[in-house]
Amino acid sequence: MRINQGVEWAIHACVNLVWIDGGPASSARLAEFHELPPAYLNKQLQALSRAGVLKSVPGQHGGFALARAPEAISTLDVMQAIEGDEPAFRCAEIRQRGPLPASKASCRTPCQINSIMLGAEAAWRAELDRHTIAEIAADVSATAPAVPERVRRWFLRGADRS
Amino acid sequence: MRINQGVEWAIHACVNLVWIDGGPASSARLAEFHELPPAYLNKQLQALSRAGVLKSVPGQHGGFALARAPEAISTLDVMQAIEGDEPAFRCAEIRQRGPLPASKASCRTPCQINSIMLGAEAAWRAELDRHTIAEIAADVSATAPAVPERVRRWFLRGADRS
DNA sequence: GGCTTGATACTCGGATAAATAGTGTCCGAGTCCTAGCGG
DNA sequence: CCGCTAGGACTCGGACACTATTTATCCGAGTATCAAGCC
Question: How much is the pTM?
């Protein structure tokens, strides 16, 4: 089992967007900042756009911008946007197969294994939901106060360069 | 992201082993009970054996048996035996790359994103660790009291048939 | 009759192929900006 | 001088290859069982 690399990329991108005041930045430029493959990052950001986390701005000075306040974007939102909202564990209901299948009456209640797995995933998501993009940005600027301004300048300089 | 199907199979297999009093059952027979590919289930059970959850008994009337009491086997144990113990989220430290890499002083503290992700996974594992094989078996026999005995008979009948 | 010994049937165990999900790339549709043209 | 228009450059967006992981399978090594032969 492995979480998509894109999740990490997307969160970093969102944090960077916070520091440039949510203003639109192109996927190419966001990718350049972390030496990522631009087209693939673009694909991830598209997913975030579809999920309503980001909004895409077409045109020359377009790009991706935060769709709402960073306090209202949790890491879970980003995660689900990229991974999809289907659970990691999918019960195949094998208890209903084989020479001694579970009776239909038994299957009225969901499979215990499934319940446990889904419960654990719920705990996992709840923990992710407790942390927002704004919180991450605040943490970083607490440990390295100069970073946000430097990042902002780098993105603006790029805008000037064009 | 997707959890290995083998996890579900392995837990079902463990529960069945509880009902036949932990006695050894061959992977072929365990597979037959749920219409699973025998060789592949065998592979999963091998992983559990390596992890010390099951013990393998070679020879004619051999198979796999619980290595310890079902109360001492959590769903997390089974999960980690099959999925491995490396975290689902692996930070690539992309903050250290690109034109504006994070300073080494900043990297003294772990990446905030990584911390959040690992914390969420810890919550997930903790939840899985709260449930044991014995608990699942008890739940099933509470909703369908006849099942354990019927399963036990089926496995024993198989032993007789040989 | 009891013990040794060999064959046998069954088990696990790891090495080896298909299928699927993740990773990465490409080019087209659409939009905004800019520069030139006419009024 | 001001408004209109055509062109261009840049953006997202989804369709198309490539790689790694998961899924599935096969055959060999090893062991307990069992039966026959020997003491």
Answer: 0.92
